[in-house]
Write a structure and sequence with these properties.
globular; mainly beta
C-alpha cells in the first residue's frame, strides 16, 4: 500500500528549508510532495550531504536564491547535493535557483 503526503512551507517570506541530511546519514524518501521551500542559500527543499534516495515524489515551487550575497549560494532550487543522490520516477516542476550548480 502506498500513501502520498505533502510537506509545504506555510510562511510566506520566511526562509525555511524542508530537510537537511547530514554527512553519514542514509535517507529514503518515497511518495512525498515537497512544496514551496524557500532559502537564500542552497537547496530549498533538501540539502543532502549524506546518502539520499528519492522515489515517486514531487518537488514543486521550491526556490533557492542568492539575494545580496556575493558568493556561490543559490544552488539547487529543489535539491542541493554534495553527497550521494539517486532519484527515480519523480517530478520536478516550478523550482528555481540563482545559480546552476549542485542540484535540481
Amino acid at each position: 500500500m502506498s500513501v502520498s503526503r505533502t510537506i509545504q512551507q506555510q510562511h510566506a517570506g520566511k526562509q525555511n528549508r524542508i530537510f537537511t541530511i547530514i554527512n553519514g546519514v542514509t535517507v529514503t524518501i518515497k511518495y512525498l510532495t515537497l512544496r514551496n521551500g524557500t532559502n537564500n542559500t542552497n537547496g530549498s527543499a533538501i540539502v543532502n550531504n549524506g546518502i539520499l534516495t528519492v522515489g515517486n515524489s514531487t518537488f514543486k515551487g521550491n526556490s533557492a536564491h542568492n539575494i545580496g550575497l556575493a558568493d556561490y549560494r543559490g544552488n539547487g532550487g529543489a535539491i542541493r547535493s554534495t553527497g550521494t543522490l539517486t532519484v527515480k520516477s519523480s517530478i520536478f516542476t516550478g523550482n528555481s535557483a540563482h545559480n546552476v550548480n549542485f542540484g535540481a
